[in-house]
Write a structure and sequence with these properties.
Blueprint: H1 4-16, H2 18-27, H3 32-54, H4 63-89, H5 91-99, H6 101-112, H7 119-139, H8 148-154, H9 156-170, H10 178-199, H11 206-209, H12 212-241, H13 244-259, H14 266-291
Helix pairs in contact: 1-12, 1-13, 2-4, 2-12, 3-4, 3-10, 3-12, 4-5, 4-8, 4-9, 4-10, 5-7, 6-9, 6-12, 7-13, 7-14, 9-12, 10-12, 13-14
Length: 292
């Protein structure tokens, strides 16, 4: 599967599971850094096994350095900040911050000239962001602003996600296959995450063992996400990839309707239509660029 739109939808839907699962993990008393380490370890090993079956590309020079740097910028710090901030600022506000990452990605892409979006792509990003913010604000109209210290730290999440998106495209090791890269980046993030967990509350496995279903669900979602994430990066570039946050915002509505019995005002459905328009515009921009 090499078409940008299906890859975006699959990756974004799997990515969107991080928010409800992360909230449930926090409520279960699981150390945020340990939760992130479990995600990276499980997804890394599974994707590595898939890479050994479906990819023939061997390890290439520079992969270890690339994996360590990308793992720190894209996985370690953003995951810890996200899961640690959710109990303090709420999942709605955390989702809003993540939804702004396409803007930071586009700005950094243009600044560093790494597959920068054209005018149509920028328009799609702006439209998609407007739709995502409409959805999140309408669904979480009563959320509290949260602790100012955590708000400041959480504001770094979209900046780091944008930097990671651009770095992965800019420094992609020549000849490296997407799934193998995804595996080594996830595995490279595990040791620092475990160290953070050890220093920040300890590594207790009891809360994890108490919620095996939640762990299994999170590992399944993360594995699906990373099986397609780096293929999307290679095909669509950093700015297109960053729109998985928009898809995640729509997923939140679907989960609420399908499993939680929630009913939403017309503003939410209008936001979904706006997000779809934004994604359509950026996909159109991708198709036009591919034909040149």
């Amino acid at each position: 599967m090499n078409r940008p739109l299906p890859l975006l939808l699959v990756t974004g839907l799997a990515f969107g599971c991080n928010f409800p699962f992360g909230k449930l993990a926090a409520e279960a008393g699981i150390n945020p850094a340990l939760w992130a380490a479990v995600i990276c370890l499980g997804a890394g090993l599974t994707v590595l096994a898939a890479a050994s079956l479906f990819e023939t590309s061997p390890a290439v020079p520079g992969m270890a350095r690339y994996a360590a740097t990308s793992g720190l910028i894209s996985n370690v710090i953003p995951l810890v900040l996200t899961f640690a901030a959710i109990p303090h600022i709420g999942s709605g506000l955390a989702a809003i911050l993540v939804a702004t990452s396409p803007v930071t990605t586009a700005l950094l892409s243009m600044l560093l000239k790494v597959r920068p979006p054209g005018l149509l792509g920028l328009l799609g990003i702006a439209v998609g962001l407007a739709g995502a913010l409409i959805i999140i604000a309408a669904r979480h109209a009563g959320f509290e602003s949260g602790d100012s210290r955590w708000l400041f730290l959480a504001a770094l999440i979209p900046v780091l996600l944008g930097a990671g998106n651009v770095y992965r495209s800019m420094a992609w090791p020549r000849g490296a296959a997407p799934m193998r890269l995804g595996a080594v980046i996830n595995l490279a993030a595990v040791p620092p995450l475990l160290l953070i967990a050890l220093l920040w509350g300890g590594v207790s496995l009891a809360p994890l063992l108490a919620v095996p279903g939640l762990v299994a669900a999170q590992l399944a979602a993360s594995t699906v996400m990373y099986l397609t994430f780096f293929r999307l990066q290679a095909v669509g570039g950093p700015t297109y990839l960053s729109q998985i946050g928009y898809v995640a915002a729509v997923l939140g509505v679907g989960v609420g309707v399908a499993f939680l019995g929630e009913r939403y005002p017309p503003l939410v459905w209008a936001g979904i239509a706006v997000v779809a328009t934004g994604i359509a515009l950026t996909t159109w921009a991708q198709l036009l660029a591919a034909r040149r």
